[in-house]
Every structure is written in C-alpha cells, then in structure tokens.
C-alpha cells in the first residue's frame, strides 16, 4: 500500500518528569480518536522474561538500547500506510512488558512521546515536527519521586539510587544533547498554555488540509 501523504508524526521529547506526557495527552484529548493517535516509546521497552524481578530492577532504563525502537519504527510505518497496530503495554511495577496490547488505529496525526525519541536517528527522521519539553532538573526529580513512589511501586531509596546511577548520567549523555534535534523547545510541559494552544492550532491546520 502506498504511504499515506496525509499523516504527520509529532514527536514530544523531554527528560523524565518534564511534563511531556501531560502535554502529549492534552494535545490528543483536544481531538477525536479518529483524528489523533498516540504512541509512547516507554511501551516499547524490551521484554526481559529471562530475568527475575531483582535482576530486571537493576537494568539501565535510560539508555537507548533499553528500547525495541526497531519495532516502534515498524509500527509507525504501518500506521503511515493506513494500517492499525497492536502497541505493547509496559508495566513499571514489574519492570517488564505486560501481556496486554493496545490497538492503535491510523489517523492523520500521530503523537509520539518519550525521553529518548530524538536520540535515535532512525526514529527521529520519521517525525515531521519535533518538540522538546525543557524543564529544570530539580522540578523533574521532585515530580519523579512523587510519581514513582505513588504509581510505580518504588521506595524513596530506590528512586534516589536509580536517579544518581543511571537516570541523571543518561539524561546528560543522551537526552539533553538530543534537544538540538528539536524544531521547537518549550519550557515546562502541560502547564504551558501558549505552547499547547500553538500545537493544537498546528494539528487543526493539518486536519483541515488532510
Ligand atoms: O514517564 P517517564 O518519561 O519519566 O518514563 C521514563 C523513565 O522510566 C526512565 O527515566 C526510566 O528510568 C524509568 N523506568 C523505570 N523502570 C522501568 C522502566 C523505565 O524506572 N522498568
């Protein structure tokens, strides 16, 4: 099937706790499911059934190799061809993919969010608009502590240890430099009403033309 010319992929990147997920969700929620679909790089974390929980909890989840980006690229290409895909679902509480999948239908606009989506050239070149959410590290770690303890079943000690051993160094090595690939850099994520409105207008314009 020929590639649908009327599909655009909007990448929303940013460090952990930057507010990129909130921004992506607000864009998606402003439109219908048949207009905008969402993909999350986190759902493509590699499966590690061969390890026990203890060993999985020690892995570096902030390196580009932690993701099955090849599968994500294939899924994007399928969606651009007008075909639906089954997006994997990731369960942070067990550090592994769950057995569930989510059906993602093709749409004129696809939003993709993730910390490292600009760090992978093969993925980056599939995007039509690249947005980087830039939020101070102190705000990001505070948000992360609250979220990981409340929603992801982590202890305070484990969050601090993971942040210092992998999250922070990988952010400096991969996430921060990938900001150079962005078309637009926005301070704070979902709380930036001006940036949100601009993105919504851009999506609306594309939908009218498509
Ligand atoms: O939602 P957010 O962008 O913060 O999600 C990415 C983060 O999830 C990464 O910084 C990574 O450290 C974390 N993660 C984790 N445990 C896993 C998989 C990812 O803490 N099993």
State the distance separating the first and last CA atoms.
18 Å
Task: For the largest sheet, list the strands in their spatial order.
Answer: 2-5-1-6-7
Count of domains: 1
Oligomer class: single chain
Q: How would you name the CATH homologous superfamily? A: P-loop containing nucleotide triphosphate hydrolases
Tell me the CATH topology: Rossmann fold
Q: Which stretches are poorly predicted, pLDDT < 50 over at least 5 residues?
A: none
Per CATH, the architecture is 3-Layer(aba) Sandwich
Beta strand %: 15-25%
Most strands sheet: 5 strands, parallel
The assigned structural class equals: alpha/beta
Structure description:
Keywords: ATP-binding, Cytoplasm, Kinase, Nucleotide-binding, Transferase. It catalyses: uridine + ATP = UMP + ADP + H(+); cytidine + ATP = CMP + ADP + H(+). GO terms for molecular function: ATP binding; cytidine kinase activity; uridine kinase activity. Pathway: Pyrimidine metabolism; CTP biosynthesis via salvage pathway; CTP from cytidine: step 1/3; Pyrimidine metabolism; UMP biosynthesis via salvage pathway; UMP from uridine: step 1/1. Residues 9-194 form the Phosphoribulokinase/uridine kinase domain. With 210 residues, the chain is α/β, with parallel strands linked by helices. The chain has a single domain (8-209), classed as 3-Layer(aba) Sandwich (Rossmann fold). Helices cover 40% and strands 21% of the residues. The chain has 7 helices and 7 strands; from the N terminus they run E-H-E-H-H-E-E-E-H-E-H-H-E-H. It has helices spanning 20-29, 53-56, 69-80, 121-124, 137-151, 156-178, 193-209; strands spanning 8-14, 36-40, 85-91, 96-104, 109-114, 129-134, 184-187. The strands form 2 sheets. The chain has a 5-stranded parallel sheet with strand order 2-5-1-6-7, covered by helices on one side. Strands 3-4 form a two-stranded antiparallel ribbon. Strand 3 (85-91) and strand 4 (96-104) form a beta hairpin. Helix 5 (137-151) packs across helix 6 (156-178). The radius of gyration is 17 Å and the shape is globular. The mean pLDDT is 95. The structure holds cytidine-5'-monophosphate. Residues 16-17, 21, 42, 45, 61-62, 92, 95, 115, 167 line the site of cytidine-5'-monophosphate.
């Amino acid at each position: 099937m020929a590639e649908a010319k009327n599909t655009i992929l909007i990448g929303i990147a940013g460090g952990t706790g930057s507010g990129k997920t909130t921004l992506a969700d607000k864009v998606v929620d402003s439109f219908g499911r048949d207009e905008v679909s969402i993909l999350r790089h986190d759902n493509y974390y590699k499966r590690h059934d061969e390890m026990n929980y203890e060993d999985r909890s020690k892995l570096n989840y902030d390196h580009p190799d932690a993701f099955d980006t090849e599968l994500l690229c294939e899924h994007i290409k399928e969606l651009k061809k007008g075909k639906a895909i089954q997006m994997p679902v990731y369960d942070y509480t067990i550090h592994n993919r769950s057995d569930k999948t989510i059906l993602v239908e093709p749409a004129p606009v696809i939003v993709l969010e993730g910390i490292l989506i600009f760090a992978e050239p093969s993925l980056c070149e599939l995007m039509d608009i690249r947005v980087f959410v830039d939020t101070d590290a102190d705000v990001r770690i505070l948000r992360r502590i609250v979220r990981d303890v409340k929603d992801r079943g982590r202890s305070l000690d484990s969050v601090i240890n993971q942040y210092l051993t992998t999250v922070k160094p990988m952010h400096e090595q991969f996430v921060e430099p990938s900001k150079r690939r962005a078309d637009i850099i926005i301070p704070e994520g979902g709380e930036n009403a001006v940036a949100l409105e601009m993105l919504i207008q851009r999506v609306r314009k594309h939908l009218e033309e498509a």
